[in-house]
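User: Here's a protein and a ligand (cobalt (II) ion). What would the complex look like?
Assistant: Let me lay out the input and then the predicted complex.
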Amino acid sequence: MIYLKTDEEIELLRESSLLVSKTLAELAKIIKPGVTTAYLDKVAEEFIRDNGAIPACKGYEGYPASICASVNDQVVHGIPSEKAVLKEGDIISVDLCTLKNGFVGDSAYTFAVGEVSTEVKRLLETTKAALFLGIERAVEGNRIGDISHAVQTHCEAAGYGVVREMVGHGVGRSMHEAPEVPNYGRRGAGPLLRAGMTICIEPMINMGKRGLRFERDGWTTRTVDGKPSAHFEHAVAVRKGKADILSDFGIIEDVLNNQK
Ligand code: MF3
Ligand code: CO
């Protein structure tokens, strides 16, 4: 069952999604060598609560923290830890969800810690570009497969592995609603997109092979070959003619650009 949202509901979802982006921008200010992912989790949780919202990941199916912090070969769902100390040249994907106005905001960004290699920069740029190519297809009359195909072909052409075990999803009053939004697929296949559908598009892209393994903590996923993985996620409302992006990387990148 796909829930179509009214314009009023989309504005409430936008508010929640923008709070996720603002939280990621707060983290952008403090991500540097020496910081632990447990500290990032604490800062995020306080910021979310100070803004009248609830960190929706905490307690979700037993997840123990407010953010997912996945470093280097960790693909997604890395659990924040005092032992995870960031160092120069790492990448860290931060994925977090807020519950505000009864709607779940959900977005993710992969940050470079200090200077990263040219190879890693290319992975980050390609993954983010693939997300925006997918978003371009999120218009009424297209199908989910059009989004999936755009993401997959862009990343595979760059020689990267596209993760299949986890996918994007509908979003609204629940974190995960129908439909699934895979990052691989065929043009013209899958559910029809209609104005008022709200979905999260979230490519998880490996520099090497696409294979994953799940750690014994029940959450963390890593690449099988130990190479790094990137993850960017936006919440998007499907519209006629042009997709409406509800989260915002602009406020995160303003912080990052001011550090240069
Ligand atoms: N934000 C993730 C997603 O994109 C879900 C996080 S899993 C959780 O679907 F358990 F941490 F919430
Ligand atoms: Co998501």
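Summary: The first helix runs from residue 7 to 30.
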